[in-house]
Structures are given as structure tokens and as C-alpha cells.
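Researcher: Please translate sequence to C-alpha cells.
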Amino acid sequence: MSTTDNSLRGFEADLKKFAETVDTDVKKVVKRVAFTVFRKLVKMTPVDTGRARAGWFMQVDKPGDDIPPEGKKSYPPPKMTIRGKLGDYPVIVIYNNVPYIQALNDGHSKRAPANFVELALHETDQEIAAELK
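Model: Translation complete:
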């Protein structure tokens, strides 16, 4: 099992506990957490042209096949939107289809720490845990 899988399992467990503990709409909690993770991922993604950073998307239930086109000298940051309609217990998938995103997360770039995806999840998980105390 990969580090990312373990991080996601712990993150999901804390998110479920958080949603059960707080007296609020689950949709609001899920959206808040998704936007927090998304912002962290965008901020932590190393930037040369910005294609990898622009490659982050959020969608309900499953990842899409979106990918920023190759060949631009620079790319705008991604939009903070969730595609799809949120149900009562939504699953928001944050994804990046840029072919080299795994290499960047593995530490290929010196502009970001290795495992920045896991770090974004861990930081958000710690923030949730702190709110539960």
C-alpha cells in the first residue's frame, strides 16, 4: 500500500469524525475541506510554466480527463470551482492529469518538497484534528 493510500485512509477517517462531531451540514464541511486541500495543492505545486499547477481540478464523484494543453509559456492558476452537483454525502475528487505530476510529487523538482500531495493532506488533517479538540 502506498504512502498516498495510507494518507487518504487516515484523512477520510478524520473527515468523517469531523463531520459527525460538528453540528453543520455535511456538504459545507466537505466543500470547506476540499477547498482547503485544493488551495494547498495549488500553492505547493512547483511552477516552471505553471502547467502542473493549472492541472488541478475538483469534480464530484470521479476524476475528469481535463489537462492543460502543452506548449504555453505560462498558465493561469486553476479556478476554485467544483464541477458537478453535490449530493447529501458528496465525494469531491481532486485530481491532476498532467503526465509528470507524479514525478513532481516524487521530488523531481527542487522548487517543492517531495510528497507535497501527502503534505497538503497531512496539513489539512492536522487542522481538522485541532478543531476537534
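Researcher: Any highlights?
Model: Residues 3-132 form one domain.
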